[in-house]
Each structure stands twice: as structure tokens, then as C-alpha cells.
Amino acid sequence: MKRYAADNKGIALFLVLWVLVLLMVIVGEFCHAMKTEVKITRNFKESTQAYYIARAGMNTAIIGLIEDKISPPKATSEEDEEEGTIKWRINAAIPEIPFGQGRFEIRIENQSGKVNINRAGKDLLRMMLSSFDCGDNEKNVIVDSILDWRDKDRFHRLNGAEDDYYQGLPEPYDCKDADFDSIDELLLVKGMTEKIFYDGLKDMVTVYPHNDSITINTGRRTTRRRKTDYNYNKININSASIQMLKALPLMTDDLAAEIVEYRKEKDFVSMTDLSGLLGPEVYQAVIRYITLKTSPYFIIKSIGAVEEGSVKQEVKALVKIDLKLKDRYLVLQWIKG
Asked: Which of 1, 37, 109, 264 maximizes the CB count within 10 A of its CB?
């Protein structure tokens, strides 16, 4: 009888230990789940805060660009910069700007540093391809085919293509005979290869504007006018990428790098500054292709972050700045990634 009682005590002790272990597992799992939920909630909160901080940065940059359009900035001293003056420079590092309980970082690009494939003439299109490993005949085919793709007639140029060529492909389609709506359409053009496109061409071109005329909403009436106030056969030396710079006639890698290095400190404000850097021979070769004017189309990237937080959110948009618009700006496209 005593032995039976001792056996029962052993079983009871085992059951108690087993229950304790089970409770420990349950409590541990509960604590882990709570920690995970708290972390998810904190990340969601910080992500939401960072997103709206980034949107605030986007709006701040737009306001800054509009103000610069109304009153173009003058050269400022270092003392002015220390007082908190923000320079909304294109293709240049802009210091982080505090906002609320976080901060945002802005990067601005202007489409004047790219070749507008809806507006560029034959010479600029051909120059654009000079930095790629393709022969003269291949360049002629691509350039003529771009011009045929966007013109409204059905007559192909010497090296171009119209419906008769595209309809003969294994997967036939029509020649568009209208402006490019996206740069990806270049992959449909005769002669264009994925290697050329993805090896840098896609970052050198733009399609804006891509209409023969633009709608202007002044708040009182809506009118349409042709876009004639900007020369799309020139590239802005202050906003051109290094690959775009290398495509300019007689431009060397070293000279392109010097231009980029110069722009880190300040923009070119006169052609005299540029000629001094390039030298007379190169300057005379590139002058017909370059300008200091910006187009109304900007790509603005804003990255928002919460103080002492690891989560960042990015918003990116193609924005048109035009004082003739009702709000003086228009977001044309929100860009993912």
C-alpha cells in the first residue's frame, strides 16, 4: 500500500512538471507573439510616419521649385547657406531637412538632361547612340526608325520602318505613327536591342512632353498651345548624366568626370565656365548640343525617415512646374521603385 502511494506521488510530480513545462511553452510563445505584434505595430507606425514625411518633402521641393521659377535664385555666400537657405539644385546632393519628428532627403532631376525622343532631331538622336557599341548602319536604322515610329505618315525613311516591316515580324504589330508614351516603346522600334536599351539608353531618354500641344488650365479658361519655348535639340549640361556627357562629340571620360566633379560644388551659370574646363576644341564640338536652360519637367525623389527609426519610405514623381497652370504645378506620374 505504501509502495502504491509512493508510485502515485511520482506520477503526480511528473504531471505537475509536465504542466509547468507546457505553461512555460505557452507563456514563451505568447511573449514571442506579443513582441512580434509590438514590432509589427511599431514598424507600421514608423512606416506610415516616414511615408507622410516623404510626401511633405515632395511638397516642400515643389514649393521650392515654384519659388525659384518666380524669383530665380542668385549666387549666395557661404554665410547665407549656414543660415538655412535651401538650394534646390538638380542632380546634386541636398542636405537632409528636419521635419516634425523625422527628416527627409530630396533628389531632383530635370528632364532637360535627357534626350526627348518625341522632339529630338536626327543629329541629336544619332549623337545619343555614339556611346554604344554599334556600327554606323545600325545607328542609321535606329534613328530613322525612331523618326518613322513617331511621325504621322506611313512612308518610311531610307533606313526606317513602317507597317510593312512590323507586320512581317513573327509577332506582328503596327507602327505607332504617334508620339512615344513611354521609353519602353523603344524596344518595339526596328534596330533597337535589349543590350543597347538596358545598358544605359533607358536612363538617357525621356518622352515628356509627348503631345503636339499641351493643355493649360489658368483657372479662368483652358487653352491649348504648341510647345515652342524650349529647344529639345539641346542637353542641359547641369542635369546630364555622366553617360549622356560621354556621348557628346570629342568628350573623354576624364572630361565628363571633371564636369560631374565641378557640379558637386556649383552649377555652370555661363558657357564661359564650361569652355574654360573643356578647352576650345571640345567646346566648339559640343556647343551645338548643350544648353543651360531647364525644361518644365522634373523627377523629384523624397525619402522620409523617423528620428532614431530604421524604417524609410520613398516617394518619387514626375512633376511639371509651369506658372501658367492653375496650381503652378502638375504631378504627371507617380513612379514606383
From this structure: 109
pLDDT, tens only, 162-176: 999 999 999 999 999
Cα distance between residue 158 and residue 144, in whole Å = 7
Between 3.30.1300.30, 3.30.430.20, 3.40.190.290, 2.50.20.10, what CATH number should domain 16-71+88-113+293-336 receive?
3.30.1300.30
Q: What is the pLDDT of residue 219?
A: 42
Residue pair 13/5 in contact by the 8 Å Cβ criterion: no
Residue 247 phi, psi dihedral angles, 5° rounding: -80, -15
What percent of the chain has pLDDT above 70? 87
CATH code of the domain made up of 115-203 = 1.10.40.60
Rounded to whole angstroms, how far apart are CA atoms 289 and 155? 28
* Torsion sign, CA atoms 34, 35, 38, 39: negative
pTM of the entire structure?
Answer: 0.77
